[in-house]
Specification:
- This protein is globular.
- The chain has 69 residues and is an all-alpha fold.
Length: 69
């Protein structure tokens, strides 16, 4: 996974003032999965992208640019 995506996930979480645990409670995506996405170990699914972008109030295309997935 591209470093830009990892930074965008953390940046969006920072500005939304949400921990990985809080994001888990809002999205239902386990905090360990969120961590793995942020670290670049796994690619998020389409459903996960929608949930994360919605919870962080950012566009899916900004959070996970199509050309970088």
């Amino acid at each position: 996974m591209n470093k830009l995506i990892k930074n965008r996930m953390k940046e969006a979480r920072f500005f939304a003032n949400k921990s990985q645990m809080e994001l888990f409670l809002v999205t239902g995506i386990h905090y360990s999965t969120i961590s793995r996405i942020e670290c670049g170990y796994i690619q998020p699914t389409g459903e996960q992208i929608s949930k994360l972008a919605g919870a962080l109030k950012v566009k899916k295309g900004w959070l996970f640019p199509q050309e970088l997935r």
